[in-house]
Automatic annotation (TrEMBL):
<keyword id="KW-0823">Tryptophan catabolism</keyword>
<feature type="binding site">
    <location>
        <position position="97"/>
    </location>
    <ligand>
        <name>substrate</name>
    </ligand>
</feature>
<comment type="subunit">
    <text>Homotetramer.</text>
</comment>
<comment type="similarity">
    <text>Belongs to the tryptophan 2,3-dioxygenase family.</text>
</comment>
<protein>
    <recommendedName>
        <fullName>Tryptophan 2,3-dioxygenase</fullName>
        <ecNumber>1.13.11.11</ecNumber>
    </recommendedName>
</protein>
<feature type="binding site">
    <location>
        <position position="216"/>
    </location>
    <ligand>
        <name>substrate</name>
    </ligand>
</feature>
<keyword id="KW-0223">Dioxygenase</keyword>
<dbReference type="InterPro" id="IPR037217">
    <property type="entry name" value="Trp/Indoleamine_2_3_dOase-like"/>
</dbReference>
<dbReference type="Pfam" id="PF03301">
    <property type="entry name" value="Trp_dioxygenase"/>
</dbReference>
<dbReference type="InterPro" id="IPR004981">
    <property type="entry name" value="Trp_2_3_dOase"/>
</dbReference>
<feature type="binding site">
    <location>
        <position position="101"/>
    </location>
    <ligand>
        <name>substrate</name>
    </ligand>
</feature>
<feature type="binding site" description="axial binding residue">
    <location>
        <position position="202"/>
    </location>
    <ligand>
        <name>heme</name>
    </ligand>
</feature>
<keyword id="KW-0408">Iron</keyword>
<comment type="function">
    <text>Heme-dependent dioxygenase that catalyzes the oxidative cleavage of the L-tryptophan (L-Trp) pyrrole ring and converts L-tryptophan to N-formyl-L-kynurenine. Catalyzes the oxidative cleavage of the indole moiety.</text>
</comment>
<keyword id="KW-0349">Heme</keyword>
<keyword id="KW-0479">Metal-binding</keyword>
<feature type="binding site">
    <location>
        <begin position="35"/>
        <end position="39"/>
    </location>
    <ligand>
        <name>substrate</name>
    </ligand>
</feature>
Length: 244
């Protein structure tokens, strides 16, 4: 199949009938459409971020740091867009949401396999989240593979060792000597910074819409989200700052 087959339309290329037909509200309430679109969009962006992180891991393993920076910068930009999207969801009032919340049943963002895979690919590997995926499902398979594979942090630290830097503190103490590693580390901190911002905005949005109620699917809601605010994919890169 050629890259530009004759007769292909915009709708054909983007598979718009399938994409735009994937929003199937279970109620007749206006705001359920927004809820669906916001969360489907986040899953699409997560798919792209996983695509970029996979490339970045391969590039770091090949010591092609400059190309890895581009992929990681793209992830950071996507994270910014995802964080801003909480402001759109926050236009939904508590009353708006409460009217259709029952149709969600036991579904919950807590079950997002792609978000957990993103955490695993960065280096936040909590095997307990495998329990929330149906055994044998594509999500479960991908999540288990990500748990077993080297993370972005793993390959970055292997690169540090390969290049002869004793520690990440040493890299920061002599950035001119270790400039490639130094820049790589700062790109990783950018990801962590953006992820922390996303978590904080998620918490505020949940508190604004449902307060401290239990989340759907039995999750603890805002209290659980609050407990994640201190999570870091690259804690060593944060703690070394104290020693500089």
């Amino acid at each position: 199949m050629t890259a530009h087959p004759a007769g292909m339309t915009y709708a054909d290329y983007l598979q718009l009938p399938a994409l735009l037909g994937a929003q199937q509200p279970l109620s007749d309430l206006h705001d359920e459409m927004l809820f669906i679109v916001i969360h489907q969009t986040k899953e699409l962006w997560l798919k792209q971020m996983l695509h970029e992180v996979g490339l970045a891991i391969a590039l770091v393993e090949a010591d092609d740091f400059a190309a890895a920076y581009k992929a990681l910068a793209r992830v950071s930009r996507i994270q910014s867009v995802m964080t801003l999207s909480w402001d759109v969801l926050a236009t939904m009032t508590p009353v708006d949401y409460s009217r259709f919340r029952h149709v969600l049943g036991t579904s919950s963002g807590f079950q997002s396999a792609q978000f957990r895979e993103f955490e695993y690919r960065l280096g936040i590997k909590d095997p307990r989240f495998l329990e929330y995926q149906e055994g044998g499902s594509e999500g479960a398979v991908r999540l288990k593979a990500a748990l077993d594979a080297d993370s972005l942090w793993d390959v970055a630290d292997q690169a540090r060792q390969r290049h002869g830097a004793d520690s990440w503190l040493a890299v920061y103490q002599d950035p001119e000597r270790w400039f490639g590693l130094y820049q790589l580390a700062e790109k990783l901190v950018d990801l962590d910074d953006a992820l922390a911002g996303w978590r904080h905005k998620h918490l505020l949005t949940v508190e604004r819409i449902i307060g401290n109620k239990m989340g759907t699917g039995g999750s603890a809601g805002a209290s659980y989200l609050a407990s994640t605010l201190e999570k870091r994919a690259f804690p060593e890169l944060w703690s070394l700052r104290t020693g500089l």
